[in-house]
Amino acid sequence: MSSISLTNASNITELRFNSVSTQKLGGTIQSLDAFTNLEEFYIIDHELIGSIPDISNNAVLRELNCQKNQLTGSIPDLSSNTVLEKYNCFKNQLTGNIPDISSNTDLTQFNCYENQLTGNIPDISSNTDLTQFLCYDNNLTGSIPDLSSNTALERFNCSINSLTGNIPDISSNTALDRFKCHDNNLTGDIPDLSNNTNLIEFHCFNNNLTGYAGGSVSPTLLSFLAFNNNLSISAVNSILAAFVAAGASGGTLNLGVNALPIGQGIIDKATLISRGWSVTTA
């Protein structure tokens, strides 16, 4: 199929082309302008090429899912799609910037990972319903934006980019269960995680972090990977102490390629190992 195009479409509210392993549509996505009442558009894993079409005429669109194709070009302007809730364009070959999404105040998911996007992560302070923002494995620069307004956020992953600056304060993100910022050029401290009582995974390895802001960690936090940074003895010791105090068992704590623990830190490492933890500090 060389293109996907339907006519007399003004009453259609849903277009769904789910993945079928033996039947790929191929071709391009043509204009969606005629689908003025379109609410959901799914075209996943169909070896599509070309660009994502303009969707400014699709004012009632709530979900757009075009992931796992071979789409190129940029993510289109989304400012007219004010009721958009889910936007998934991951695993394509998209370039350009992540667009301004401040008008998309109903947005709950924005996933653009594994593309070739450049520029900064946009301001997401207006997206207070956002539960998932995944932009990892692109070519993004700049800093991680302020997340204090995103109190519904559950998953944030900006890893494998070229981001700089500090990890922001995430004390307001009490619903957060996974935070990943590894493989960047981040500096400063690992933030206080005392308020993140639902946190399961925190991965900040392969950066240039030097300190730890202190505070407690939740017993739910069973995967903490901070290896290959520049963490000080004090930071390493404090992290080990926080995990001992949390009282959990059977997790993974990797602080390798940082300063080695001393004194009480060595004792705390042994305590965690006795509780079934995998602990790396060498």
Protein architecture, described:
With 282 residues, the protein is mainly beta. It folds into 2 domains: 1-140, Leucine-rich repeat, LRR (right-handed beta-alpha superhelix); 181-282, no CATH class. The N and C termini lie far apart (56 Å). Helix 2 (264-274) links the parallel strand 15 and strand 16. Helix 1 (233-246) packs parallel to helix 2 (264-274). The protein has helices at 233-246, 264-274, and strands spanning 3-4, 14-17, 28-29, 40-43, 63-65, 86-88, 109-111, 132-134, 155-157, 178-180, 187-190, 201-203, 208-212, 223-225, 252-254, 278-280. The chain is elongated, with a radius of gyration of 22 Å. The strands form 3 sheets. The chain has a 12-stranded parallel beta sheet with strand order 2-4-5-6-7-8-9-10-12-14-15-16, with helices on one face. A two-stranded parallel sheet has the order 1-3. Strands 11-13 form a two-stranded parallel ribbon.
Architecture blueprint of SSEs:
Elements: E1 3-4, E2 14-17, E3 28-29, E4 40-43, E5 63-65, E6 86-88, E7 109-111, E8 132-134, E9 155-157, E10 178-180, E11 187-190, E12 201-203, E13 208-212, E14 223-225, H1 233-246, E15 252-254, H2 264-274, E16 278-280
Parallel strand pairs: 1-3, 2-4, 4-5, 5-6, 6-7, 7-8, 8-9, 9-10, 10-12, 11-13, 12-14, 14-15, 15-16
